[in-house]
Amino acid sequence: MLVSAETAAPQDFSIEADRARLSVVALKAYLRLVEQWGLTGQQAAALLDVSSSTWERMKARGKDRPLSQDQMTRISALVGIYKGLHLLFADAMADDWPKLANSGPLFARSTPIEAMVRGGIPQMLEVRRYIDAVRGGL
Question: How far apart are CA 135 and CA 113, in angstroms?
């Protein structure tokens, strides 16, 4: 049975059933992003705000339990950044950009990865808005 977009309930990361349903795909996407961006285990863990040992367990047994609301939000923002970069740049630059020092006011001469680790979810959302604005010609 098909459900129209008008009658479908909005996705809600606070609902454990939704997170359980989406966690496997979200973690798979994040693992791919980590690989494409060439992130270290420490960077990958820091972006999710987990310890390195927790990150290693998540990689090995990610399907055991749902990601948290916070982790789902972080992955969603990062995947949005990844997608925006690939729409904006050729693949090599799109994957290198997060690791390049940036003089823009949002980054203060640090890399976007460093800025997002420092600033957490709010900074990730700002970086996503920044990429979307650049793509839109603003």
Answer: 19
Counted domains in the chain:
1
Total residue length of the chain: 138
pLDDT digits (tens, 9 = 90+) for 95-130: 999 999 999 889 989 999 999 999 999 999 999 999
Least Cα distance to 41 among 58, 62, 19, 23 occurs for 58
Q: What is the pTM of this model?
A: 0.86
Task: Answer yes or no: is 68 within a domain.
Answer: yes
Other beta carbons less than 10 A from residue 100's beta carbon: 11
User: Does 122 reside within a domain?
Assistant: yes
Token pair of 109 as six digits: 């001469």
Residue 20 lies in a domain: yes
Tokens 């949005």 locate to 80
Taking the C-alpha atoms of residue 67 and residue 26, their distance in angstroms, rounded to an integer, is: 9
